[in-house]
Structures are given as structure tokens and as C-alpha cells.
Amino acid sequence: MEDHKDTRHTLSRLLTHFGHQISVAADKQSALNILASSQNFDVILCDIGLPDGSGYEVIFQAKRRHPVKAVAITGFGTEADVRRSTEAGFDFHLVKPVDLRELQGVLDQVGAEFACNSSSRIAERPQNGRAKTAGVASRRLLI
After folding, report:
1. Nearest partner of 44 among 52, 35, 36, 53, judged by Cα
2. How many domains does the chain have?
3. Under 8 Å between Cβ of 72 and 24
4. CA-based, 20 to 30 A from 98: which of 2, 35, 48, 108?
5. Burial of 127 by CB count in 10 Å (0-12 exposed, 13-18 middle, 19+ buried)?
6. Which domain holds residue 61?
7. pTM for the full predicted model
8. b/e per residue, 101-123, with b = 16+ CB within 10 A?
9. Quick check: 22 pLDDT over 80?
């Protein structure tokens, strides 16, 4: 989730260009509604400070439903912030402004983990003729 409209739009367009399937949410409640609709995501990119709650709450609920990788994309970057996001269930912590190469590195790492844990799941992902990052299959992402 990303409450900043321009950031959400830019991330969505870039990640769609790289072949990922994207769903977007601007706040905690819309994210929880999307998650409740039984859509399963491979990765959730989530701001921590949301207008109607926190990303911590979203990730807690998401991980209760099914295994998912969670990436904090936030302005909170102290050691205590990183520790708190890890304790809340985030697997990665990126500080804004996020470098696209750093984000792609995280998604590549997640892709490698999926390949090790579930190669048939990755093989079934449709590519829809879209550009892919090197060696990375399409992922379902919630932004």
C-alpha cells in the first residue's frame, strides 16, 4: 500500500512494465478489503505510515491468511524502525526514496526463494508478452 498517489502510480507502472501483476491500495482498509477478497499475492509492498492505520496491521493480517513476502517502503529508516518492521513481519525494509535497482534486487531475491521453494508455481505464471527482469517470473504484487 502506498498512500502517495504519484508514488503508487509510478511503482504500479514500472512493475507492470517488468511483467508483474499489480493490485493497488491507497490505505489500510482498501488493502484489507483486497486481501479479504481471497486474492493471494506473492509480495506486498507496503508503506508503514498510512492515513487510516499502519502497514504493520496490514502485514499482520496478510501473513495470517497465507505465506507472503512483505516489503516495507517507508520514510522510517532508523535501526529501531527496521527492527520494528522485522518484528511486525516485514521481510525487507526499504527507505524512501527507493532506488529502483534496490527494489528490483529485493524482487529478484524473492524470485530466487520462490524458485527454490516452488518451481512449479513459478512455471505456471503467465507472461502476457510483457518484459521480464532477468530470470524473474511474473509475481502478483499488492502495492
Report:
1. 35
2. 1
3. no
4. 35
5. exposed
6. 5-142
7. 0.82
8. eebbebbeebbeebeeeeeeebe
9. yes
Residues 6+ apart with CB under 8 A from 122: 111, 114, 115, 137
**Cα(1)–Cα(113) distance, rounded to whole angstroms?**
23
Output the domain CATH number for residue 60.
3.40.50.2300
Listing DSSP states for 92-106 in one string gives EEEESSPPHHHHHHH
Residue-level pLDDT at 112: 79
Residue pair 142/1 in contact by the 8 Å Cβ criterion: yes
Q: At what angle do helices 28-36 and 55-65 cross, to 10 degrees?
A: 10
With 60 as the cut, is the pLDDT of residue 81 above it?
Answer: yes
Beta strand extents in the chain (DSSP E only): 21-23, 43-46, 49-50, 53-54, 69-74, 92-95, 140-142
**pLDDT tens digits, 39-78:** 789 999 999 999 999 999 999 999 999 899 999 999 999 9
